[in-house]
Every structure is written in structure tokens, then in C-alpha cells.
Amino acid sequence: FSQEHPQTIAVVLAKLKPKQTSEIISLLPQDLQAEVVIRIAEVDQVSPEILSEIEEVIRQELTALGGVQRFKVGGVEKVVDMFAHLDRSREKKILDKLDTINPPLAEVIRKHLFTFEDIFKLDDRAIQSVMREVSNDTLTLAMKTSVDEVKDKIFRNISSRAAEMIREDLEVMGPVRLSDVEKAQSEIIKIVRKMEEEGKVVIAGRGADDVLV
């Protein structure tokens, strides 16, 4: 699969679910990952003739669509959804590569991504709502590598008893796998994104349309 042209890979991956896309992206050679991400972001529409030559499932979908001449496959939103399922180290490597290949695209993706450190962008009420959905064990592990700014914001928005317990746990916590920390952070990020989709929280900095009044 990695021997295929990046455009071909991008068209196929753009038709998959974000989690599947992220898993396959992670298996590609590192130099190819950023190239494919760029193609997914740019391949907004493609002719059914091209799709029919690439993948059987897409051929079946196009047959059902009949005379439709263009088919939605990718775009920046698809890339952002895919990034949500990547581990942090993989995400950083791809974005760093994009910085050298396509800086404008890297900037757009970063603007739409929400990371654990972005929790400080939430207002106090939003953080309180999110924290009610997170277990203390998950929160403690997620905060293992957090900067003080994020820790302080979270501690201010949970009960004093919970804050004290987490502080104590962090002090005595020994070395842990980075992948476990990233998994805990991802769980919290998914909660934030779900609540944003449901209109329960607003993430500042999403663009001009997100100005609060």
C-alpha cells in the first residue's frame, strides 16, 4: 500500500472512518505520512471514474448515486477528525513535517485541533462540566505531563478535596508510560469535543464565528 502514489492512498483513506484512517496513517513511512495528509486535505472532490478504479466499496456507492458527477471524500475537516485518533507523538511528527512542506495547511489544522493543553481556553463553567465526566484516576494520569497553567486551571475548577488528592497522587507517582498519559488525555479530549458538538461547551479561538457576546 505504501508503494502507491500519495494521491491514491489519500483518496482511499479519505473514504474510511477517522479512526481507521489514523491507524493506517501510523503504519505508513514517516516521510509519506505528511504527504498523504496534505492530499487528504486537498482532495475535497474527485470524479467517480477515478474512485471506481481505486476501491470496490467506492464503486458500489457511486453506482447507487447514479448520475452524480462529484463525490465528497476529504478536506481539512476529514484531516482534523483523523488527527483526533492519532497519539500525540505521531501528531507532532506529522505537523512538524507539514510545517516544512505546507505551512498554511499546518496552521489551519492546528487551529482546529484541540489538545489537552488547550483546556485553559475553556471558561470555568465549561471545565467544571467536563471534569464531572472524568474520573480522578484518568485526570491524575492526564496531568502527569501538564504545564502548571493547565494544572492550576483544573485545580481551580474541581473540589478542594479532589484537588488535594490529585496533587498528592502526582507527587508520589513514579514513572509511567507516555502512551498511557496520552491515552488518558485523549479520553478527556474526546469528552470535550463531544460536549462541544452538543453545544454544552464553547472552545475559544476556533475562528471569527466563535466570538462570544
Secondary-structure map:
Layout (H helix, E strand, L loop, with lengths): L5 H9 L3 H10 L2 H13 L2 E2 L1 H7 L1 H10 L5 E2 L3 H8 L4 H14 L1 H10 L11 H8 L4 H7 L5 H8 L4 H13 L5 H20 L16
Antiparallel strand pairs: 1-2
Helix pairs in contact: 1-3, 2-6, 3-6, 3-7, 4-5, 6-8, 7-8, 10-12, 10-13
Task: Describe the protein's architecture and organization.
It is a single chain. The chain has 213 residues and is an all-alpha fold. The protein has 2 domains: 107 residues, Orthogonal Bundle (Annexin V, domain 1); 95 residues, Flagellar motor switch protein FliG, alpha-alpha superhelical domain (Annexin V, domain 1, Orthogonal Bundle). It contains 13 helices and 2 strands; from the N terminus they run αααβααβαααααααα. The longest helix is centred in the last third of the chain and has 20 residues. The protein is elongated, with a radius of gyration of 20 Å. The C terminus is likely disordered.
What's this, in brief?
By secondary structure, this protein is mostly helical. It has helices at 6-14, 18-27, 30-42, 48-54, 56-65, 76-83, 88-101, 103-112, 124-131, 136-142, 148-155, 160-172, 178-197, and strands spanning 45-46, 71-72.
What labels would you give this structure?
64% helix; 13 helices; Annexin V, domain 1; 213 residues; 2 domains; disordered C terminus; single chain; mainly alpha; 2 strands; elongated
> Would you give the CATH topology of the largest domain?
Annexin V, domain 1
How does the overall form come out from the CA principal axes? elongated
Quickly count the domains.
Answer: 2
Q: Architecture of the largest domain in CATH?
A: Orthogonal Bundle
Distance between the termini: 49 Å
Strand content: under 5%
Count of discrete alpha- or pi-helical segments spanning 4 or more residues: 13
Main sheet summary: 2 strands, antiparallel
Structural class: mainly alpha
Sketch the topology as an H/E string, one letter per element.
Answer: HHHEHHEHHHHHHHH
Major sheet strand order: 1-2
How would you name the oligomeric state of the polypeptide chains in this document? Answer: single chain
Q: What is the CATH superfamily of the largest domain?
A: Flagellar motor switch protein FliG, alpha-alpha superhelical domain
Regarding CATH, which class of the largest domain? Mainly Alpha
**Fraction of helical residues:** 55-70%
